[in-house]
Amino acid sequence: MDKNFQEEFTQIIKFKPPLYKQRHQFVKDLVEKYKPKKVADLGCADCSLLRMLKFCSCIEVLAGLDICENVMKEKMHTLSPLPVDYLQPSERSLTITLHHGSVAHKDPCMLGFDLVTCIELIEHLEEPELKKFPEVVFGFMAPSIVVISTPNSEFNPLLPGVMSYRHPDHKFEWNQAQFQSWALETARCYDYSVEFTGVGQPPTGMEKAGFCTQIGVFVRKYPQTGESVQSEKPTEAVYKTVFKAVYPSLKDEKYLQNAVISEVIFAAQIIKHRLMSKHEEYGDDPERKSKFQPSVDCFSDYLGKLVGEKNMEPFVSGNEVYIPLATIFSFPKVNRLCGTFEKLCKLIAGKVTLSSDGSAVMFNIEHENEDN
Ligand code: SAH
After folding, report:
1. Do residue 225 and residue 327 come from a single domain?
2. Do both 66 and 186 map to the same domain?
3. What does the UniProt keyword field contain (predicted)?
4. Domain range enclosing 82
5. Cα of 152 from ligand 1 centre, angstroms
């Protein structure tokens, strides 16, 4: 490489966004493409990738592993659910777990993952650990996809201030040929295919240097059979779990019930409000009042269609307003949350005041009128 040319670039190479963000974005894009449900990040350090991935709605299980317990613990509290997660539980379930241990050891808690990420990890492994790594990740964990990133040493001369390795803890840094031959051999051995890419574009005229971070995306060639997943893999737990957060989810009956109750009351209030305004509009005129039924014009088109159907008309009787559950069940959100009418009845039983036959939500409006 021409020295002047090299020096010129050394002055200007600054990645935007920063390289670590580009690596994490690469993983996020991969998640959006393959939609894995269970993702494990090996060598998760301060959990920054996990923090980003927890917003990917396809993911239900996230796990982090690191040999350094303290670095994981530094910011692990940021993986806990926030008050808003309790106020508006998500429809998906999400569990995040952090383990302290080494990628050189097998632990059953690492089985069953769809995607395993190893971002800037392998270059931190001592030789004996690196030797065991393929058997643990590809042989034992055997996820559908593995993504491995590592520095490309051919790019180092372009980086300001890098004399040997990019980080004092790196045990090696491979050039493109070294990484690719290790990756191809690993893929061949464990029946994966591998494709190479990277982040951190080289400057124009320096394309031969390759990406600053080289990445291998491994895809398992054959689906795992049920048997090979668990029964052939009797291993003892060796990792220590240092953190576990179970996010509130509508898959949990307790949160579903709360959500359904508030939606039912909300829907019933809307219908009642419309009904009462119409009621007041007709006043005491007996002729007009006799016609009083919530007709299409007093509801939205949608509601109008509903009330046209039998047994779905809300009505006032004395000081009570009755909103049929069948009408409430037709509200899209209530319908989606409950799935079936029976489930709706079960979830609100004893929690919402109903008519004596249980077919309608009942409101007493006596005091409401006084307030007005
Ligand atoms: N993946 C992170 C940071 C990588 S730094 C990111 O994308 O930003 C490498 C991490 O690997 C460090 O946190 C280090 O503690 C961890 N590590 C080193 N050897 C390990 C091993 N044998 N098993 C698990 N983690 C290891």
Report:
1. no
2. yes
3. Magnesium, Metal-binding, Methyltransferase, RNA-binding, RNA-mediated gene silencing, S-adenosyl-L-methionine, Transferase
4. 19-247
5. 17
* Whether residue 197 is found in the same domain as residue 160: yes
Whether 293 is in a domain gets the answer no
- Shared domain for 220 and 155, answered yes or no, is yes
What distance in angstroms lies between residue 120's CA and the mean position of ligand 1's atoms? 7
For the chain, how big is the Rg over CA atoms in Å?
30
Mind listing the pLDDT tens digit for each residue in 48-81? 999 999 999 999 999 999 999 999 999 999 999 9
148 close to ligand 1 (CB < 6 Angstrom): no
Task: Tell whether ligand 1 has an atom less than 6 A from the beta carbon of residue 114.
Answer: no
- 69 and 179 part of one domain: yes
Asked if the structure places residue 172 within a domain, the reply is: yes
The CATH number for 160's domain is: 3.40.50.150
Count of the separate structural domains present in the chain: 2
The residue nearest atom 14 of ligand 1, judged by CA position, is: 43
pTM: predicted TM-score of the whole model, two decimal places: 0.84
Q: Which ligand 1 atom is at minimum distance from the Cα of 24?
A: 7
Expressed in angstroms and rounded, the spacing between residue 166 Cα and the centre of ligand 1 is 15
- Residue of minimum CA distance from atom 21 in ligand 1: 102
Q: What is the pLDDT of residues 221-246, one digit of tens each?
A: 998 765 555 556 668 999 999 999 99
